[in-house]
Amino acid sequence: MPGENLTRDEARARAKLLTVEGYEVALDLRSAVGEHTGSGPRTFRSTTTIRFRCAEPGAATFADLLAPSVTSVRLNGRELDPAAVFDGSRIALDGLAAENELVVDAQCAYSRTGEGLHRFVDPEDGEVYLYTQYEPADARRVFANFEQPDLKGPFTFSVTAPEGWTVLSNGTVDRVEPSGAGDSAATSHFVPTRPISTYITAVLAGPYHHESDLYRRTLPDGSELEIPLGALCRKGLAKHFDAGDIFTVTKQGLDFFHDHFDYPYPFGKYDQAFVPEYNLGAMENPGCVTFREEYVFRGKVTQASYESRANVILHEMAHMWFGDLVTMEWWDDLWLKESFADFMGAFALVGATRFTDGWITFANRRKAWAYRADQLPSTHPVTADIRDLEDAKLNFDGITYAKGASVLKQLVAYVGQDAFLEGARRYFKRHAYGNTRLSDLLSVLGETSGRDMATWSRAWLETAGVNALTPHATYDAEGHITELAVEQDAAESAGSEYAAPPRGTLRPHRVAVGLYRKEAPAGERPGALVRYARAEVDVDGPRTVVPELTGAARPDLILVNDEDLTYCKIRFDEGSLDTLRQHLGELTDPLARALSWSALWNLTRDALLPARDYLELVRRFAGAESDIGVLQMVQAWALSALHHYSAPEAREAAGAQLAEVTLSELRQAEPGSGHQLAWARFFAQVAVAESELRMLSGLLDGTARIDGLDVDQELRWTFLAALAASGQADEALIGAELARDDTASGRRHQVRCLAARPSAAVKAEAWDAVVESDRLSNALVEATISGFDQPGQRELLAPYAPRYFEVIERIWQERSIEIGMAIVRGLFPAAQGDAHALEAADTWLDGHPDAAPALRRLVLEARDDLARALRGQDCDKRAAAA
Length: 882
Fold this sequence. Notes:
Radius of gyration: 28 Å
Distance between the termini: 52 Å
Helix content: 40-55%
Number of strands: 28
């Protein structure tokens, strides 16, 4: 990674100097197929012509390129010596004219890390698939450029590839010509794009399965808009590909955004490609969106998975306007695209698709991500201080996405939906194909709402941390409320040298306060816990009275932030918490239930609720949870509570109790339902007793059966992974399963299962494969780490804690940032889960103050999670002793 970074100051200086007029990029990808005979990386030819203006003739600057070699560099007709001007990451340019033309002919490397131009060979049929992924700054791995978001330009691509391949880019194909080299290859020439940033350009090539459709719409001026739609995946996944559902959600989203944005989709066609070994969920390349192929479901999944995929489709589509049409000037304002896309994904999901409960998922899943991130030592304001590209890479986090989206949801409540959407419409028209900062958006929102957006921004966008809201009520002798107040605290959040936001920030919140009691009104089941009173109030400062609820009958539960209008941690008064302990499953409103589950988990993470109490709630009430997405989230939290927050001496008994209840729920679940599938997967994660493992083995070999449970290939791997981690599946059994499923997905599962086996030799082999070698692709690195890190194998993993701290600086220097992040995060000794690992982390941090800030941030975050878990364990021990 040395020499690859770009600072904000460098980018700003270059932006003042240069204006890009256009790029012509020619890629020759014929080398992707056939044997690789060279000793170095497999490469392809990349020829780039950049035309640009310079505000100060005679000045010097640089172009960006990460490539094994450069054949030639020509600036304004003058040949430059590549050895003299290219240092491996930059091309030095001096003596610039007012009008310039730079031509760079280079040999660029195919990637196995998911960065740049990724090359994947399908083990099922030997076919080669290529795709690009650039954000934030990996286009320079494919062609020479000025790699920063505010130096936009139109791009004209031409791609030479084996004949018969599908070749796509951002624009439509203008023409396809024989390569003229006497081989079976062809060159696809694409129409120029509109001005876009380098990081959202895209190329995809290979024998992809391709389905098509067409979107039509009559615009307000009476003209007809037609958008050709494409959906692609590997040939090996074609039998699982439900392109029809993808096209349905796509058309619903396009209708929704056209209705609300009043700006026609600006990039012509709309292809969506599901690609292998993808590092992200998806990427918003205009006209050529890429997704991880796990969204092509090989087996039965719950409706939560379909909802998640639809949300991602709509998230990326929102980027066509927020991010692609109008782009942030620098990564400080990454939220200008990601927060909006995250909010708009949920907004459109609820408003346009069959997933009308999308805000429940948002409250329960997305905001949990934000709450965790906002209490880490690396917490930062939504508008962050991004000093360089390494900072930018790590800021694709729960604050930029989910907290930012939550803040926008609060903003809609603050200014009103109509003013918010009118502000968006003005923003697009005013800044189309340009770059913006925070002030540009606040300006239009101030115009449309009449609100003081500067004050709102300072409170919500420019400070870090999460507030906690707690209700306090007093009652008269008859049990009626005499006063109900909402008290606001600045929730704890560890500071660090990486980010030291001001503490004690109290924000204005628009919240609903709901009063619930046990009653049986018409249409509700007996004993239901239902809302009987509600009031909205502007909470501002440490204490706010809610006068509208004075005189109301005494509630069993007071729910602050009912309906999830604001971003905060919910606390409960003692009576409300007692009610939830006894009657959580009787809350009839699914959003109120989801908010309660989330609040209870936050109490557990904050060591205010013992893990044993949370697990008891799961055992008692998870089986009654009707929302499948909430159930799966609750199950995931239960695993964390068991493995990380429970007192070590209590884990075995707690795990046995959880497994017993899980098996009971599995047997009672409706046959063939999503709930049955969710309980089956969860059972595999908690099964430890011999009888439970025999049940998993029986489900695999057909000697055991649960009515309605289809043990398809994906579920087989889930069961086998549990057996492998418990020592019940050896290499031969795992190999036999691979023979049933010798596909790319099957090989990832195989690698994970092999690394999960409880053997010192296995762990040593897995460690060496990831740490001491770079032979594994990004997907197999991820699978190996996942198998290596088993919470039930603490003694086997303990020797790797000191080794981890010995190697991480070398890993960070030698590997790409994507692989470096995976290793530093994934191999942190959290599974060891004790004070020795915490002490080792502190020793490393104290002894390496000058380590790369991004590396320190990763270690700080992992260290904080471990410290939080240890506080939770102490809380659980105290509860046991009480």
